[in-house]
Write a structure and sequence with these properties.
The complex is a heterodimer of chains A (329) and B (334). Chain A has 329 residues and is α/β, with parallel strands linked by helices. Chain A is built from twelve helices and twelve strands. Chain A has an eight-stranded mixed beta sheet, with helices on both faces. In chain A, strands 2-1-4-5 form a four-stranded antiparallel beta sheet, with helices on one face. In chain A, 48% of the residues are buried. With 334 residues, chain B is an alpha/beta fold. Chain B has eleven helices and twelve strands. In chain B, helix 6 runs parallel beside helix 7. The two termini of chain B are 26 Å apart. The chains are: A alpha/beta (329), B alpha/beta (334).
Chain lengths: 329, 334
């Protein structure tokens, strides 16, 4: 971890005048998995897109740096990189998969062509060899009858198979970092379990780092070594996955964890502790802590003046709350 | 709990589809031989993955989809045979709540008019003033500020829109609600508010409810009884706490094992289901789950296993339901 693969430093991002991310810093080590947890409007998808520099034209990076260490050991500043150097990294050293594979795959090309298109963009390889590699990868990813599926069009596959094809496209060049934005949200739960197992196995086998984006703490726990919680564009908590879930430091993390029904709980035994109110509008954030209006630990005069800083809590954790120490005691 | 409100008997729904080279007409069997009942004041949860038939069953219960076979009895009357007058009364008494409130609310109507419209249609408001008063009371019941009555749906947040959908469903004092994925389009922190709101309204008004969702934990939390569906057939029905503590059907066990919990992650790789859902155009013979079942044996292909009552109120459609619980080491996670 002394030499991170990806280091995001003080990144701020806005759509027009509306801030999406404010002073976000994070790092992902080689082979490490970091999960970003957040609700809609938290900026979690913008963060993934910023690393890939796939943001829409209306988005502006207003401060900060995104540094990525390439296979050759050189650091690239992605936030300022030109099209040619981005092209060299995207798909080759950084892969990305999305929530809905149907909209990411090209409906008029066969599966096989879409996989070796990714491969041949980055490597000089005879067609037959590219085909061979694509097919071997599909088989390795648990696609039955890989040879036949290579000839299929995306609409002929189930959601789970389509997501495996997306993973194949992302991994065919052996990237050292995979960004996965809610890759299992559109899938059925038994298929989700398969895909999560697959991603974990691939990270292990290839020493690949994972930046995984989700709204679901259960999914986060399954793949994460560390968890980073975003709220209204700011990091509110970072730490080792087990610790964040067992002993959340930020009142938002705690409230969000409690508001999800657990298997086997029932209304006749417990009341679901819901969080009141709604996520604030990014264009009109409250002056102090963004969670203050919904926070059970809110203190007037303390939490509503200025945003609390993100402060270290022990050696491995950070939290953005004035009262974290008092509440943890 | 006072008496049987809804009785669904041997319900089957087939949809004609055309596919393949010669556009051969085929039938998609969405629901096969489903039977269940619902008592007044009871919440029944329907869970299953895509293609399980859960939405179609909910639509049949509201007489929004015509079954190919079977009956839906509401207060002992077949809802598909109701004449005009009693049908109007059924439409008032049985109300839907939809998944996506943005898609189910008229974008050009104001919130107050959306909530009041059922009262106008069923002529339940004596005057304009009475209507306004009723709408205000409904908005208060679902936690919406009355000032929002003048807003249009797009001016509301997702959680507020779902509250409008619930207020509209409650407007005519129904006795049955069918909520199809009522919280799956909402943010995590908003979903809990809406679940609590539905349960509070259900208790206050002693409503019967069918809650349909793919999320077993949410359904298990809200429901009194849970029905697990796979490829259009009922795999298991049991009281909510028993479904988690002692699931008897191998599919229910696998479904529970596939849910990642924040504290523990997935229960264990060995229970993971392999393969994909078979096509509903050509479901497997015998038990529809046998192609993915770790306990399947040749006999499972021969006949559809009947639903058997294993303990009072706990039914499972599996030939080996007694054995599976031993082999799965209890199977439950609660």
């Amino acid at each position: 971890m002394n030499e991170p693969l990806l280091a995001v430093d003080d990144l701020s991002l806005a759509y027009g005048e509306v801030p999406a991310l404010q002073h976000v810093s994070l790092s992902v080590g080689r082979g490490e998995s970091l999960v970003i947890v957040g609700e809609s409007g938290s900026g979690k998808s913008s963060l993934g897109l910023a690393v890939m520099r796939l943001l829409p034209r209306t988005a502006r990076i207003t401060s900060g740096a995104i540094r990525f260490r390439g296979r050759d050991g050189a650091m690239t500043e992605l936030a300022a990189a030109d099209a040619a150097s981005l092209q060299r990294l995207r798909g080759k050293e950084i892969g990305m998969i999305f929530q809905e594979p149907m909209t990411s795959l090209n409906p008029v090309y066969r599966i096989g062509e879409q996989i070796f298109e990714a491969l041949r963009t980055h490597e000089v390889l005879p067609r037959a060899a590219a085909r061979e590699r694509a097919m071997a990868l599909l088989a390795h990813l648990g696609v039955p009858e890989a040879a036949r599926r290579m000839e299929a069009f995306p609409h002929e596959l189930s959601g789970g198979l389509r997501q495996r094809v997306m993973i194949a496209i992302a991994l065919v060049c052996n990237p050292s970092l995979l960004i996965a934005d809610e890759p299992t949200t559109a899938l059925d739960v038994t298929i989700q379990a398969q895909i999560l197992e697959l991603l974990k196995r691939l990270c292990r086998e290839r020493g690949m780092a994972l930046l995984f984006i989700t709204h679901h703490f259960g999914v986060a726990r399954e793949v994460a070594q560390r968890i980073l919680v975003l709220y209204a564009g700011r990091v509110v908590e970072v730490g080792p996955a087990a610790a964040v879930i067992a002993r959340p430091l930020h009142p938002y993390t705690r409230a969000l964890l409690q508001s999800v029904p657990r298997l086997g709980t029932n209304k006749n035994q417990t009341i679901l502790p819901a969080i009141g109110g709604a996520v604030p509008d990014s264009a009109h954030l409250p002056p102090g802590c963004a969670f203050a209006p919904r926070c059970p630990a809110f203190v007037p005069g303390l939490c509503d003046r200025e945003p609390p800083p993100l402060s270290a809590f022990g050696t491995e954790r950070s939290v953005r709350c004035f009262r974290a120490w008092e509440l943890a005691a | 709990m006072s008496g049987r409100l809804l009785e669904v008997a041997n319900l089957s729904v087939r949809f004609p589809v055309r596919s393949g080279l010669f556009r051969r007409p085929m039938f998609l069997q969405a629901v096969s031989g489903v039977s269940f009942h619902l008592d007044a004041g009871e919440i029944l949860g329907l869970v299953g993955e895509s293609g399980s038939g859960k939405t179609t069953i909910g639509q049949c219960a509201l007489r929004l989809t015509e079954p190919s076979e079977g009956r839906v009895l509401f207060r002992s009357q077949d809802v598909f045979l109701l004449s005009r007058g009693p049908l109007g009364e059924f439409r008032r008494a049985a109300q839907p709540i939809f998944q996506d409130p943005a898609g189910s609310l008229d974008p050009r109507m104001r919130v107050g008019d959306i909530i009041g419209e059922p009262l106008v249609i069923h002529r339940l408001a004596a005057s304009r003033a009475a209507l306004k008063e009723r709408v205000a009371a409904l908005m208060e019941e679902v936690g919406l500020a009355t000032a929002l009555a003048q807003r249009l749906p797009h001016q509301l947040s997702g959680g507020q829109r779902q509250r409008v959908g619930i207020a509209r469903a409650l407007a005519c004092d129904p006795v049955l609600l069918v909520a199809d994925e009522p919280v799956s389009a909402l943010d995590v922190s908003i979903a809990a508010q809406v679940i609590n709101l539905l349960i509070a309204a259900q208790r206050r008004r002693n409503l019967a409810m069918i809650v349909i969702a793919h999320d077993l934990a949410t359904v298990g939390y809200a429901a009194d009884r849970v029905m697990v569906l796979y490829l259009g057939r009922v795999m298991e029905i049991a009281p909510a706490r028993e479904i988690f503590a002692g699931p008897r059907h191998p599919y229910t066990q696998a479904l529970i094992a596939a849910i990642p919990e924040p504290e523990t992650g997935l229960a264990g790789g060995r229970m993971l289901l392999e393969g994909e859902l078979p096509s509903p155009l050509s479901p497997p013979s015998g038990c529809v789950f046998r192609t993915r079942c770790r306990y399947a044996e040749p006999a499972c292909a021969e006949a559809v296993p009947p639903s058997r009552e294993l303990t009072p109120g706990h039914f499972a459609a599996c030939r080996r339901a007694e054995e599976s619980i031993v082999q799965a080491g209890g199977g439950g996670r609660a």
